[in-house]
Specification:
Helix content: under 10%
Largest sheet: 9 strands, mixed
Strand content: over 45%
CATH class of the largest domain: Mainly Beta
Number of strands: 32
Oligomer: single chain
CATH architecture of the largest domain: 5 Propeller
Mean pLDDT: 94
Number of domains: 2
Shape: elongated
Low-confidence stretches: none
Radius of gyration: 23 Å
Structural class: mainly beta
CATH superfamily of the largest domain: Glycosyl hydrolase domain, family 43
Distance between the termini: 37 Å
Protein backbone atom coordinates (compact mmCIF):
# COMPACT_ATOMS: atom_id res chain seq x y z
CA UNK A 1 0.00 0.00 0.00
CA UNK A 2 1.47 3.36 -1.02
CA UNK A 3 2.27 5.84 1.70
CA UNK A 4 0.63 9.25 1.45
CA UNK A 5 1.94 12.74 1.99
CA UNK A 6 -0.44 15.15 3.73
CA UNK A 7 -0.23 18.95 3.70
CA UNK A 8 -2.53 20.95 5.95
CA UNK A 9 -2.24 24.71 5.62
CA UNK A 10 -4.21 27.73 6.74
CA UNK A 11 -4.67 29.54 3.42
CA UNK A 12 -6.82 32.64 3.59
CA UNK A 13 -8.08 31.66 7.07
CA UNK A 14 -9.54 28.41 5.69
CA UNK A 15 -7.96 25.03 6.31
CA UNK A 16 -6.70 23.45 3.09
CA UNK A 17 -5.70 19.79 3.23
CA UNK A 18 -3.87 18.18 0.30
CA UNK A 19 -2.63 14.60 0.08
CA UNK A 20 -0.97 12.45 -2.56
CA UNK A 21 0.37 8.92 -2.71
CA UNK A 22 4.14 8.52 -2.91
CA UNK A 23 3.79 7.74 -6.61
CA UNK A 24 1.15 10.43 -7.16
CA UNK A 25 1.45 14.13 -7.97
CA UNK A 26 4.78 15.33 -6.45
CA UNK A 27 3.50 17.94 -4.00
CA UNK A 28 5.51 20.86 -2.63
CA UNK A 29 4.96 22.96 0.47
CA UNK A 30 3.20 26.29 -0.01
CA UNK A 31 6.15 27.99 1.69
CA UNK A 32 8.31 27.13 -1.35
CA UNK A 33 6.08 29.39 -3.47
CA UNK A 34 4.88 31.93 -0.93
CA UNK A 35 6.79 34.75 -2.65
CA UNK A 36 4.55 34.30 -5.71
CA UNK A 37 1.58 35.55 -3.72
CA UNK A 38 0.42 38.84 -2.25
CA UNK A 39 -2.62 39.66 -0.16
CA UNK A 40 -4.76 42.73 0.40
CA UNK A 41 -4.44 45.23 1.86
CA UNK A 42 -1.04 46.22 0.48
CA UNK A 43 1.48 48.18 2.53
CA UNK A 44 0.35 51.65 1.44
CA UNK A 45 -1.94 53.07 4.08
CA UNK A 46 -3.58 56.31 5.16
CA UNK A 47 -4.27 57.12 1.50
CA UNK A 48 -7.20 57.20 -0.89
CA UNK A 49 -7.95 57.05 -4.61
CA UNK A 50 -4.94 54.91 -5.64
CA UNK A 51 -3.55 54.87 -9.16
CA UNK A 52 -0.93 52.30 -10.26
CA UNK A 53 1.34 52.92 -13.23
CA UNK A 54 3.20 49.84 -14.56
CA UNK A 55 6.80 50.53 -15.53
CA UNK A 56 9.78 48.45 -16.58
CA UNK A 57 10.98 46.65 -13.48
CA UNK A 58 8.07 47.62 -11.26
CA UNK A 59 5.19 49.93 -10.51
CA UNK A 60 4.64 53.53 -9.50
CA UNK A 61 1.73 54.22 -7.14
CA UNK A 62 0.04 57.60 -6.73
CA UNK A 63 -2.72 58.44 -4.26
CA UNK A 64 -4.51 61.04 -2.19
CA UNK A 65 -2.48 61.60 0.96
CA UNK A 66 -0.98 64.53 2.80
CA UNK A 67 -2.23 68.12 3.03
CA UNK A 68 0.18 69.50 0.42
CA UNK A 69 1.28 67.95 -2.86
CA UNK A 70 1.43 64.27 -3.73
CA UNK A 71 3.65 61.38 -2.75
CA UNK A 72 4.47 58.45 -4.98
CA UNK A 73 5.44 54.92 -4.02
CA UNK A 74 7.82 52.74 -6.06
CA UNK A 75 7.47 48.97 -5.88
CA UNK A 76 8.99 46.01 -7.70
CA UNK A 77 6.41 43.51 -6.48
CA UNK A 78 3.34 45.43 -5.20
CA UNK A 79 4.23 44.11 -1.74
CA UNK A 80 6.96 46.48 -0.54
CA UNK A 81 7.04 50.20 -1.33
CA UNK A 82 9.44 53.14 -1.17
CA UNK A 83 7.94 56.63 -0.93
CA UNK A 84 9.07 59.91 -2.50
CA UNK A 85 7.53 63.28 -3.35
CA UNK A 86 5.92 63.59 -6.82
CA UNK A 87 4.39 67.08 -6.75
CA UNK A 88 5.14 69.94 -4.38
CA UNK A 89 2.70 72.66 -3.37
CA UNK A 90 0.54 74.07 -6.20
CA UNK A 91 0.74 77.88 -6.36
CA UNK A 92 -2.97 78.50 -6.93
CA UNK A 93 -4.23 75.88 -4.43
CA UNK A 94 -5.14 76.29 -0.76
CA UNK A 95 -5.28 72.55 0.03
CA UNK A 96 -7.29 69.35 -0.52
CA UNK A 97 -4.86 67.52 -2.80
CA UNK A 98 -6.87 64.58 -4.15
CA UNK A 99 -6.92 61.78 -6.71
CA UNK A 100 -3.71 62.09 -8.79
CA UNK A 101 -3.55 60.10 -12.03
CA UNK A 102 -0.56 59.87 -14.38
CA UNK A 103 -0.47 59.21 -18.13
CA UNK A 104 2.11 59.19 -20.91
CA UNK A 105 1.30 61.70 -23.67
CA UNK A 106 3.45 63.14 -26.46
CA UNK A 107 6.73 62.17 -24.83
CA UNK A 108 5.79 63.63 -21.45
CA UNK A 109 4.28 62.38 -18.25
CA UNK A 110 1.02 64.09 -17.34
CA UNK A 111 -0.54 64.28 -13.88
CA UNK A 112 -4.19 65.19 -13.38
CA UNK A 113 -5.27 66.04 -9.85
CA UNK A 114 -7.83 67.84 -7.69
CA UNK A 115 -7.10 70.80 -5.38
CA UNK A 116 -9.04 73.61 -3.74
CA UNK A 117 -8.68 76.91 -5.56
CA UNK A 118 -7.57 80.01 -3.67
CA UNK A 119 -9.50 82.20 -6.11
CA UNK A 120 -12.91 80.50 -5.90
CA UNK A 121 -12.72 78.44 -2.72
CA UNK A 122 -14.03 75.50 -4.73
CA UNK A 123 -12.50 72.25 -5.90
CA UNK A 124 -10.85 72.39 -9.30
CA UNK A 125 -8.88 70.13 -11.69
CA UNK A 126 -5.17 70.75 -12.18
CA UNK A 127 -2.57 69.43 -14.61
CA UNK A 128 1.20 69.11 -14.27
CA UNK A 129 4.01 67.63 -16.36
CA UNK A 130 7.26 65.75 -15.73
CA UNK A 131 10.09 64.11 -17.66
CA UNK A 132 9.94 60.94 -15.54
CA UNK A 133 6.89 59.06 -14.24
CA UNK A 134 7.89 59.53 -10.60
CA UNK A 135 8.30 63.29 -11.11
CA UNK A 136 8.95 65.84 -9.93
CA UNK A 137 5.88 67.31 -11.62
CA UNK A 138 5.63 71.02 -12.37
CA UNK A 139 2.73 73.34 -13.18
CA UNK A 140 2.53 74.80 -16.67
CA UNK A 141 -0.71 76.72 -16.15
CA UNK A 142 -1.24 79.42 -13.54
CA UNK A 143 -4.60 78.00 -12.58
CA UNK A 144 -6.94 75.06 -13.16
CA UNK A 145 -7.12 73.13 -16.41
CA UNK A 146 -10.66 74.45 -16.91
CA UNK A 147 -12.99 76.89 -15.17
CA UNK A 148 -16.62 75.87 -15.57
CA UNK A 149 -18.07 77.75 -12.64
CA UNK A 150 -18.55 74.68 -10.48
CA UNK A 151 -16.48 72.20 -8.48
CA UNK A 152 -14.70 69.50 -10.50
CA UNK A 153 -12.82 66.51 -9.07
CA UNK A 154 -11.45 63.04 -9.90
CA UNK A 155 -10.30 63.70 -13.46
CA UNK A 156 -9.04 60.91 -15.71
CA UNK A 157 -8.17 60.62 -19.41
CA UNK A 158 -8.93 58.40 -22.35
CA UNK A 159 -8.33 58.55 -26.11
CA UNK A 160 -10.52 57.72 -29.10
CA UNK A 161 -9.37 55.61 -32.06
CA UNK A 162 -8.02 58.71 -33.82
CA UNK A 163 -5.85 59.63 -30.85
CA UNK A 164 -7.98 62.53 -29.63
CA UNK A 165 -7.74 62.99 -25.84
CA UNK A 166 -10.82 63.23 -23.62
CA UNK A 167 -11.17 64.37 -20.03
CA UNK A 168 -13.60 62.42 -17.86
CA UNK A 169 -14.32 64.23 -14.60
CA UNK A 170 -16.83 64.69 -11.79
CA UNK A 171 -19.09 67.67 -11.22
CA UNK A 172 -18.86 67.51 -7.44
CA UNK A 173 -21.94 67.48 -5.21
CA UNK A 174 -20.52 70.33 -3.12
CA UNK A 175 -21.61 72.70 -5.90
CA UNK A 176 -24.28 70.72 -7.72
CA UNK A 177 -27.84 70.70 -6.38
CA UNK A 178 -30.58 68.78 -8.20
CA UNK A 179 -34.21 68.77 -6.99
CA UNK A 180 -33.11 69.69 -3.50
CA UNK A 181 -30.39 67.01 -3.39
CA UNK A 182 -26.63 67.35 -3.71
CA UNK A 183 -25.37 65.03 -6.45
CA UNK A 184 -22.02 64.22 -8.03
CA UNK A 185 -22.32 63.61 -11.78
CA UNK A 186 -19.70 62.33 -14.22
CA UNK A 187 -19.01 64.42 -17.34
CA UNK A 188 -16.78 64.06 -20.38
CA UNK A 189 -15.26 66.65 -22.69
CA UNK A 190 -12.69 66.65 -25.46
CA UNK A 191 -9.25 68.03 -24.59
CA UNK A 192 -7.01 70.15 -26.76
CA UNK A 193 -4.21 68.10 -28.29
CA UNK A 194 -1.61 70.06 -26.29
CA UNK A 195 -3.60 69.39 -23.07
CA UNK A 196 -3.83 73.10 -22.18
CA UNK A 197 -7.62 73.18 -22.01
CA UNK A 198 -10.89 71.74 -23.26
CA UNK A 199 -12.74 71.93 -26.58
CA UNK A 200 -16.52 72.07 -26.83
CA UNK A 201 -19.16 71.63 -24.16
CA UNK A 202 -18.99 68.96 -21.44
CA UNK A 203 -21.44 66.06 -21.79
CA UNK A 204 -23.25 64.41 -18.87
CA UNK A 205 -22.27 60.71 -18.78
CA UNK A 206 -23.74 59.26 -15.56
CA UNK A 207 -25.60 60.33 -12.45
CA UNK A 208 -26.57 58.37 -9.30
CA UNK A 209 -29.72 56.30 -9.78
CA UNK A 210 -31.26 53.09 -8.54
CA UNK A 211 -31.44 51.63 -5.05
CA UNK A 212 -27.77 50.75 -4.62
CA UNK A 213 -26.40 54.09 -5.88
CA UNK A 214 -28.64 56.22 -3.67
CA UNK A 215 -28.11 54.67 -0.24
CA UNK A 216 -26.39 57.86 0.94
CA UNK A 217 -29.66 59.81 1.06
CA UNK A 218 -29.86 63.40 -0.15
CA UNK A 219 -26.13 63.53 -0.89
CA UNK A 220 -25.43 61.17 -3.79
CA UNK A 221 -22.36 60.23 -5.77
CA UNK A 222 -21.13 58.99 -9.11
CA UNK A 223 -17.41 59.72 -8.82
CA UNK A 224 -13.90 58.28 -9.20
CA UNK A 225 -14.20 57.52 -12.94
CA UNK A 226 -11.84 55.15 -14.76
CA UNK A 227 -12.12 54.29 -18.46
CA UNK A 228 -10.97 51.06 -20.13
CA UNK A 229 -11.29 50.35 -23.87
CA UNK A 230 -12.16 46.76 -24.77
CA UNK A 231 -13.68 45.15 -27.83
CA UNK A 232 -14.43 48.49 -29.46
CA UNK A 233 -16.33 49.67 -26.38
CA UNK A 234 -15.58 52.21 -23.66
CA UNK A 235 -16.11 50.93 -20.14
CA UNK A 236 -16.63 53.65 -17.54
CA UNK A 237 -16.07 52.44 -13.99
CA UNK A 238 -17.25 54.72 -11.20
CA UNK A 239 -17.82 54.73 -7.44
CA UNK A 240 -21.13 55.28 -5.66
CA UNK A 241 -22.29 56.35 -2.18
CA UNK A 242 -20.12 58.35 0.24
CA UNK A 243 -16.42 57.46 0.54
CA UNK A 244 -16.79 57.02 4.32
CA UNK A 245 -19.68 54.53 4.01
CA UNK A 246 -19.19 50.76 3.92
CA UNK A 247 -21.40 50.76 0.78
CA UNK A 248 -18.87 52.83 -1.16
CA UNK A 249 -18.42 50.54 -4.16
CA UNK A 250 -17.57 50.28 -7.86
CA UNK A 251 -20.02 50.07 -10.76
CA UNK A 252 -19.59 50.08 -14.55
CA UNK A 253 -21.29 51.53 -17.64
CA UNK A 254 -20.60 50.88 -21.33
CA UNK A 255 -20.64 53.09 -24.46
CA UNK A 256 -19.50 53.10 -28.08
CA UNK A 257 -17.61 56.40 -27.75
CA UNK A 258 -15.83 58.32 -24.98
CA UNK A 259 -18.75 60.73 -24.59
CA UNK A 260 -21.43 58.06 -24.52
CA UNK A 261 -24.27 57.52 -24.20
CA UNK A 262 -23.38 55.08 -21.40
CA UNK A 263 -25.54 52.16 -20.30
CA UNK A 264 -24.98 50.90 -16.77
CA UNK A 265 -24.28 47.18 -16.34
CA UNK A 266 -27.11 45.11 -14.93
CA UNK A 267 -24.78 43.32 -12.51
CA UNK A 268 -23.61 46.43 -10.65
CA UNK A 269 -21.91 46.82 -8.24
CA UNK A 270 -18.82 44.92 -9.38
CA UNK A 271 -16.86 45.66 -6.22
CA UNK A 272 -18.84 45.79 -2.97
CA UNK A 273 -18.38 45.40 0.80
CA UNK A 274 -18.10 41.92 2.30
CA UNK A 275 -19.79 40.80 5.50
CA UNK A 276 -18.33 38.22 7.87
CA UNK A 277 -19.71 36.40 10.90
CA UNK A 278 -18.80 39.31 13.16
CA UNK A 279 -19.70 42.12 10.79
CA UNK A 280 -18.22 43.78 7.75
CA UNK A 281 -14.67 42.63 6.91
CA UNK A 282 -14.16 44.63 3.70
CA UNK A 283 -15.62 48.11 3.85
CA UNK A 284 -15.83 50.80 1.19
CA UNK A 285 -13.97 49.21 -1.76
CA UNK A 286 -13.91 52.02 -4.26
CA UNK A 287 -12.31 54.76 -6.37
CA UNK A 288 -10.50 52.30 -8.59
CA UNK A 289 -8.09 52.65 -11.49
CA UNK A 290 -6.78 50.03 -13.93
CA UNK A 291 -3.38 48.89 -15.15
CA UNK A 292 -2.05 46.06 -17.28
CA UNK A 293 0.88 43.75 -16.57
CA UNK A 294 1.90 41.21 -19.20
CA UNK A 295 -1.57 41.16 -20.74
CA UNK A 296 -3.36 40.72 -17.41
CA UNK A 297 -5.76 43.47 -16.31
CA UNK A 298 -5.64 44.65 -12.71
CA UNK A 299 -7.49 47.25 -10.71
CA UNK A 300 -6.20 49.25 -7.77
CA UNK A 301 -8.73 50.54 -5.23
CA UNK A 302 -8.94 51.56 -1.60
CA UNK A 303 -10.79 50.07 1.37
CA UNK A 304 -11.35 51.37 4.88
CA UNK A 305 -8.45 50.57 7.18
CA UNK A 306 -10.88 49.97 10.04
CA UNK A 307 -13.90 48.23 8.46
CA UNK A 308 -15.98 48.37 11.64
CA UNK A 309 -15.35 52.13 11.89
CA UNK A 310 -15.27 53.48 8.31
CA UNK A 311 -13.58 56.84 7.83
CA UNK A 312 -11.13 58.66 5.60
CA UNK A 313 -8.35 56.32 6.74
CA UNK A 314 -7.96 54.01 3.75
CA UNK A 315 -5.46 51.54 2.27
CA UNK A 316 -4.34 50.18 -1.10
CA UNK A 317 -5.78 46.96 -2.53
CA UNK A 318 -5.14 45.28 -5.90
CA UNK A 319 -7.15 42.59 -7.68
CA UNK A 320 -7.57 41.19 -11.19
CA UNK A 321 -10.31 42.26 -13.57
CA UNK A 322 -11.52 41.42 -17.07
CA UNK A 323 -14.39 40.96 -19.49
CA UNK A 324 -16.63 37.99 -20.22
CA UNK A 325 -17.25 36.77 -23.74
CA UNK A 326 -20.60 38.59 -23.70
CA UNK A 327 -18.83 41.90 -23.00
CA UNK A 328 -19.73 42.13 -19.32
CA UNK A 329 -16.94 43.60 -17.18
CA UNK A 330 -15.94 41.91 -13.93
CA UNK A 331 -13.60 42.46 -10.98
CA UNK A 332 -12.16 39.49 -9.05
CA UNK A 333 -12.59 41.04 -5.65
CA UNK A 334 -12.50 42.32 -3.10
CA UNK A 335 -10.07 39.70 -1.78
CA UNK A 336 -8.14 39.28 1.44
CA UNK A 337 -6.77 35.79 0.83
CA UNK A 338 -3.43 35.35 -1.01
CA UNK A 339 -3.59 35.88 -4.79
CA UNK A 340 -0.91 35.37 -7.42
CA UNK A 341 1.15 38.41 -8.25
CA UNK A 342 1.24 39.46 -11.95
CA UNK A 343 2.38 36.39 -13.86
CA UNK A 344 4.77 38.37 -16.03
CA UNK A 345 6.67 39.49 -12.91
CA UNK A 346 7.07 35.86 -11.87
CA UNK A 347 8.10 34.54 -15.29
CA UNK A 348 4.98 32.37 -15.35
CA UNK A 349 2.39 31.55 -18.00
CA UNK A 350 -1.31 30.74 -17.65
CA UNK A 351 -1.39 27.23 -19.11
CA UNK A 352 -5.19 27.15 -19.18
CA UNK A 353 -5.06 29.62 -22.07
CA UNK A 354 -3.29 26.88 -24.08
CA UNK A 355 -5.77 24.10 -23.24
CA UNK A 356 -8.04 22.81 -26.00
CA UNK A 357 -11.29 24.79 -25.85
CA UNK A 358 -14.18 22.92 -24.27
CA UNK A 359 -17.58 24.58 -24.05
CA UNK A 360 -18.43 22.58 -20.94
CA UNK A 361 -15.57 24.14 -18.99
CA UNK A 362 -15.42 27.61 -20.56
CA UNK A 363 -16.64 29.25 -17.33
CA UNK A 364 -13.65 27.77 -15.50
CA UNK A 365 -11.14 29.51 -17.78
CA UNK A 366 -12.73 32.92 -18.38
CA UNK A 367 -10.55 34.79 -15.89
CA UNK A 368 -13.39 35.46 -13.45
CA UNK A 369 -12.78 33.78 -10.11
CA UNK A 370 -16.38 34.70 -9.21
CA UNK A 371 -15.49 35.86 -5.71
CA UNK A 372 -17.72 38.91 -6.30
CA UNK A 373 -21.38 38.30 -5.53
CA UNK A 374 -22.50 39.76 -8.86
CA UNK A 375 -20.45 37.13 -10.74
CA UNK A 376 -22.77 34.29 -9.72
CA UNK A 377 -24.24 33.83 -13.24
CA UNK A 378 -20.72 32.96 -14.43
CA UNK A 379 -20.07 30.21 -11.85
CA UNK A 380 -19.51 26.66 -13.11
CA UNK A 381 -21.41 23.97 -11.21
CA UNK A 382 -20.81 20.24 -11.45
CA UNK A 383 -18.72 17.30 -10.24
CA UNK A 384 -16.22 16.67 -13.06
CA UNK A 385 -14.16 18.88 -15.33
CA UNK A 386 -11.48 17.79 -17.77
CA UNK A 387 -8.84 19.68 -19.77
CA UNK A 388 -6.42 18.54 -22.48
CA UNK A 389 -3.41 20.03 -24.24
CA UNK A 390 -2.43 19.23 -27.79
CA UNK A 391 1.23 19.80 -26.87
CA UNK A 392 2.43 19.07 -23.30
CA UNK A 393 3.00 22.16 -21.13
CA UNK A 394 5.17 22.59 -18.06
CA UNK A 395 3.28 23.48 -14.88
CA UNK A 396 3.94 23.50 -11.14
CA UNK A 397 0.89 25.15 -9.54
CA UNK A 398 -2.86 24.56 -9.67
CA UNK A 399 -5.47 26.88 -8.14
CA UNK A 400 -9.24 26.38 -7.79
CA UNK A 401 -11.64 29.08 -6.58
CA UNK A 402 -14.86 27.73 -5.02
CA UNK A 403 -17.94 29.93 -4.80
CA UNK A 404 -17.79 32.27 -1.77
CA UNK A 405 -18.70 30.46 1.42
CA UNK A 406 -18.62 26.96 -0.09
CA UNK A 407 -16.52 24.05 1.13
CA UNK A 408 -15.03 21.93 -1.63
CA UNK A 409 -13.19 18.61 -1.74
CA UNK A 410 -12.13 16.20 -4.42
CA UNK A 411 -9.25 14.85 -6.48
CA UNK A 412 -7.09 16.21 -9.26
CA UNK A 413 -5.42 13.85 -11.71
CA UNK A 414 -2.64 14.88 -14.06
CA UNK A 415 -1.87 12.78 -17.15
CA UNK A 416 -4.30 10.08 -16.03
CA UNK A 417 -2.09 8.81 -13.21
CA UNK A 418 -0.57 11.58 -11.02
CA UNK A 419 -3.20 12.13 -8.37
CA UNK A 420 -3.73 14.36 -5.34
CA UNK A 421 -6.72 14.87 -3.05
CA UNK A 422 -7.74 18.24 -1.61
CA UNK A 423 -10.23 19.64 0.85
CA UNK A 424 -10.88 23.35 1.51
CA UNK A 425 -13.07 24.34 4.43
CA UNK A 426 -15.75 26.98 4.11
CA UNK A 427 -15.55 30.31 5.89
CA UNK A 428 -12.19 31.54 4.63
CA UNK A 429 -11.23 35.07 3.73
CA UNK A 430 -12.71 36.58 0.57
CA UNK A 431 -10.93 35.14 -2.46
CA UNK A 432 -9.75 31.96 -0.70
CA UNK A 433 -8.67 29.28 -3.17
CA UNK A 434 -7.30 25.76 -3.26
CA UNK A 435 -3.55 26.30 -3.79
CA UNK A 436 -1.81 23.13 -4.91
CA UNK A 437 1.95 23.49 -5.56
CA UNK A 438 3.90 20.57 -7.04
CA UNK A 439 7.20 19.79 -8.68
CA UNK A 440 7.31 20.79 -12.39
CA UNK A 441 5.40 18.30 -14.54
CA UNK A 442 4.79 18.06 -18.29
CA UNK A 443 1.00 18.22 -18.39
CA UNK A 444 -1.03 16.62 -21.18
CA UNK A 445 -4.34 16.30 -19.35
CA UNK A 446 -5.98 17.47 -16.14
CA UNK A 447 -9.08 16.04 -14.50
CA UNK A 448 -10.91 17.48 -11.51
CA UNK A 449 -13.41 15.28 -9.65
CA UNK A 450 -15.38 16.80 -6.78
CA UNK A 451 -16.76 14.63 -3.99
CA UNK A 452 -20.13 16.31 -4.41
CA UNK A 453 -21.59 18.89 -6.77
CA UNK A 454 -20.18 22.32 -6.06
CA UNK A 455 -19.73 25.71 -7.72
CA UNK A 456 -16.31 26.84 -8.92
CA UNK A 457 -15.32 30.19 -10.34
CA UNK A 458 -12.01 29.45 -12.00
CA UNK A 459 -9.25 26.88 -12.53
CA UNK A 460 -5.73 28.18 -13.04
CA UNK A 461 -2.69 26.11 -14.01
CA UNK A 462 0.62 27.97 -14.29
CA UNK A 463 4.21 27.17 -15.08
CA UNK A 464 7.48 28.81 -16.03
CA UNK A 465 7.83 30.32 -19.50
Amino acid sequence: MSSKRFIALLIGAALLTVSAAADGLPLRDYSAMADRFAANPRNVKDIGDPFVLPLEGGYQVFATGGPIGFFTWRSADLKTFERSKALQKVSWASGDYWAPEVFAADGRWVMLYTVRSKATGGLRTGIAFADAPEGPYAETLEGPLMELGYATIDATMTWDDEGNPYLIYVRDCSENEVSGRHESHIYGVRLKRDLTGIEGEPVLLTRPEGEWETRSGDWRWNEGPAVVKHGGKYYLFYSVNAYYMKEYSVCAAVADSPLGPYVKQANNPLLAPVEGEKGVIVSGPGHNAFFEAGGELFTAYHTHTYPLAPSGNRQLCVDRAGFHADGTAFICGPTLAPQLRPLTDLGLVNRMAQALPEEATALLTDGDTCVAETSKPYLWRGTEAAFRWETPVTADLLMLWPAPGEAVSGTVTVNGSLEAAFSLEAGGLPGAAVILPFEPVQVESLEIRLDQEAALGEVLLVGAE
